[in-house]
């Protein structure tokens, strides 16, 4: 049988069929191929009887032709090799795949592009884009198979799926510059190239390519427009993206829901909900039905604006329009409620989600657990954690991080450490956020020794110390009165080139002020003013120094610093007000109640058009029963409210004060 197959292979592998010798004048039909097979069998039998010398084994074992991987028995021929290529490519057996290609090449088999496209996709599945590019070049040189735009697009797609956008552009332009290939790009080629350019931030270059399409007799489709709109929106060029929507409709290319969703999502993130709503109306007029992505974008926009109740009501409208919410929908709403300090309402929404047959994912649980701990609802958070574990929900580093951080906030770092051990046993490696939370927890209960052990453990586990962990360490050491060690950490941080942030600076300034080294703290403060945006002083920094100056009865210097604070665009808060109220009552002769001081501060903020900051000080005055003048009250109300809603705002303010 092997000799028969060998002879059959040898006969079919000739560059010329020799049809006249076998009695065929064209490509043989099925019946002729059967006759040819019989002829080969008889010829092989005669050769065995004459004891013909056996030929060497082919590189692909003959056993594969008796039993295939899935397709049953094989018969040797071109279609057999094509089937083998598909099977090996699908199973990822690239070693056997190369053997098949080598044998086909030796036997001068015909290579077809379809098989190479299958191999390109196989390399894409195992994340080997370089292999796909190499095979593309081998197609013509080694296997004598002409590459077309189909092969080009297949390889481009493999590269782009790996997010190697610069590599994709390099490959594309190299192919275009190779005149011997003579490949003409189609719509899909342009779509892929425009996508790569947009992801690299080369939006203007993408627009140029987009305009060149029609010159090359290639009309953009809705995916082209959608990709370019997305790139423009990510660059903040929303108006240009919307103008493309009008252009595509003029050109007779009708948008789909995905096109509208790109624009609606961008407008919602920008906070322009009015234009987003108009686009939804336009969408309905064009016969495009809003899908879950449309509703999710609108809900996200409402959450960013703080309009949580409207976002939740949109959920009911979504369901009534027979568009089922998914875990992303609930995740947006739950996260929005948590950010507004309404974690309990978010927990109720999780229950509603579960009643609809959806299970909360790890991101939803982490947001809820974190929110409940921050709001002091630790028992509820613990119950939610147990519920999540009992339901078999996947626990990852994010969820563990939220739970550990919550326990540390509650002053239970030892329990948090036990959870850390459990986390490691389950194969989840802690990150810098988790270690930083543990350090903060031990510092909170006054155990700086264990906090330093966590710092060491962090280094032992190859977890990099970042600016957050350094800031927590410096803050903890300063609050523990260990200023010398804090200074050592500060110098080590500088030597490593780690960027100092406002937390690190504020912690160090606080340490100096607590050690009665206010001048050293002021030097660091002046240094902050010369740093980048991450290190600019915030209201906490100002309050630390203001309090230190007032404790030293340096009220005039404190007033100068307050003026700097206002000039730098930082609004005072309730702590700032309390610092000055205490000083004016206890360290000024005769004592003052502070009403005139706060009232002047309100007027200065209003004149600088910082009405929101002024309104917060008015609330402090009302809490302290230091009633502002009618003129001062009017200034704030007029700045905050429309004329017809003044009374409504006053009622709301009093309601907040007494409830």
> Could you tell me the radius of gyration in angstroms?
36 Å
Biggest β-sheet, characterized? Answer: none
Inertia-based shape:
globular
Number of strands: 0
Notable features of this structure?
659 residues; mainly alpha; 36 helices; 70% helix
In short:
The chain is an all-alpha fold. It has helices at residues 2-12, 19-22, 30-49, 78-91, 94-106, 113-125, 129-141, 149-161, 165-177, 187-199, 203-212, 222-234, 238-250, 257-270, 273-285, 292-304, 308-320, 327-339, 343-355, 362-374, 378-390, 397-409, 413-425, 432-444, 448-460, 467-479, 483-495, 502-514, 518-529, 539-551, 555-567, 574-586, 595-607, 611-623, 630-640, 646-658.
Commentary on this structure:
The model is unreliable at 1-59 and 65-75 (pLDDT under 50). Helix 8 packs antiparallel against helix 9. The protein has helices spanning 2-12, 19-22, 30-49, 78-91, 94-106, 113-125, 129-141, 149-161, 165-177, 187-199, 203-212, 222-234, 238-250, 257-270, 273-285, 292-304, 308-320, 327-339, 343-355, 362-374, 378-390, 397-409, 413-425, 432-444, 448-460, 467-479, 483-495, 502-514, 518-529, 539-551, 555-567, 574-586, 595-607, 611-623, 630-640, 646-658. It contains 36 helices and no strands. The protein is mainly α. Among the domains are: 2-49, no CATH class; 57-110, no CATH class. The radius of gyration is 36 Å and the shape is globular.
